[in-house]
Amino acid sequence: MAEGWSMPRDREAATTRLDALVREHRFTISVVFPVVGAVTLLASAELPLPSWAAFNPFFVLFGTLVMRLPLVAGVGPLLDRRATLALVALAAYSYAIELLGVRTGWPYGEFSYGVDLGPMLFGEVPLGLPVFFFPLVLNAYLLVLLLLGERAESTLPRLLATLATVILVDLVLDPGAVAIGFWEYEAAQFYGVPWSNYGGWLLSGTVAVVLFDLGFDRAGLRRRLAECEFMLDDLVSFVLLWGGINLFYANWVPVGLAALLGAGLVRTERFDFDLSETRLGRAVWR
């Protein structure tokens, strides 16, 4: 064990330490990792790499977990019993609906995974599915809270705006994922993705948004958003990673939609990396 390192005494100490870790490595986590991830995924899709290197599932899962750290740090202190139950219910739902989709084609359309995204449940669904799915919805929810301000206190506008943002996120994600071979649909209508997929996301997104809304204390989320300038950095990573992949394949509509998400982050002042406050930045500015 490294000298001077010790286990946090309690949850508050763990929160403080994780917040400091994310702030210290903010640029690396939210810019370097997605850029490197985009390059390696494109290399896996386009170059004759050895089998152990192409779409290495452990590399994919590790990179995803690292990019999730800002969101985990921000939300972690709010995980009380109600929020945890909501996450457990959503995990069960996401596994069930994904398994149904793989086996029957409903509600997303007939599709199959082209690569292993880590260990597979029943050999059919990624065990890490919640790691991939939850943050997409929660990032959309947090972005809407910031963009709507006080109007987000009204239930219907908050939920509808979040659901629209979730669909926007998938309009960026799925075309890029299909382009690099993560999964493949039998019917290809929008950059290789059938419109039925977005109907499925409408269903799953509604369930997820409602569960997040019921499970998390909104005042607590607003407080953490104010305390953690990095809390939406996972969405920054998403824009860079999937916007970059779509740009490589000239998927212009998804690129434009990724730029729209980026504009939302700029408006909320979440695209605000101060390099002088990062380890890389201190080296650059000296």
UniProtKB/TrEMBL annotation:
Pfam families per record: Caroten_synth
Transmembrane segments: 27-45, 51-71, 83-106, 126-148, 160-183, 195-214, 235-266
InterPro entries (alphabetical): BABR_hydratase, CruF, CruF-like
Organism: Haloarcula saliterrae
Keywords per UniProt: Membrane, Transmembrane, Transmembrane helix
Protein's name according to its UniProt entry: Carotenoid biosynthesis protein
UniProt xrefs under PANTHER family: SLL0814 PROTEIN
Highest taxon in the source lineage: Archaea
